Protein 1
Amino acid sequence: MFIVNLTYIKPLEEVKKYLDEHITFLNKYYESNNFICSGPKNPRTGGVIICNAKNMEDVNEIISEDPFNTNGIANYDILEFHLTNYAEDFKAFVE
């Protein structure tokens, strides 16, 4: 499991220009069950994605498609963690 921490490096006006494309990207990976949840930070300096992937290489490949990445809108900090405990409703993401 991975936490993808996005930090905007462009003004919010630039972020908004690519937001629809970014949402399309997010939806693609929700449909493939790679993304579990996502949303903007408060204050709006970036966003967070919880990602289910096999390894760091897969996460990097996924992130390479994000319009925020390809258009130089955000930097990405990726943190891998291993689930040891989780709510029963989360079980579908673990198996």
Note: Helices lie at 12-17, 19-31, 56-63, 67-70, 91-94.
Protein 2
Amino acid sequence: MEPLTEKQIRSSFVNCTKGEAARLKLPPNFDELPWEDLDFLGWVDPGAPLRAHLVRPGTDTDGTPVGISLRVPGTNRTSALKSSVCQICLTAHAASGVSLLVAPLAGPRGREGNTVGFYVCADLACSLYLRGKRQPKLRGRAYEETLTLQERIERALINLDALTDKVTVGRD
């Protein structure tokens, strides 16, 4: 992923107000992010731990990044499960490593209170799990995949695009 500026990040959000985007805290150590290892930027807001943010870089046809504001549950609803899988990168985690994040829809439907939820890595570090730079906590054996790293990255981006599409459909 190409590095993004603070201005690009703040202006990318499609499902929150400009004021909310202006108030969000950027990831800790923003100036030191491993951009070359990221396929998208995701973080839990250090100033508001029940908020998370995800920024997808622009596609080949449109260079504009798309940012999504997310709500983090106050309690982990997956704790009864032994393990869970992220819907973006398909990394298996102990249940506490995956959270149900909820995004208000963009546009009029979101202003009416409509949301969509998805289970993703609780720390939004999918790119680092794909590359083996971070290891999930997992009870039992990890799944082995036969896909190459590039194929897993492409799959994750397709999954991320599908989630992004769910948030942006019907946007003004």
Note: The CA atoms of residues 54 and 68 lie 5 Å apart.
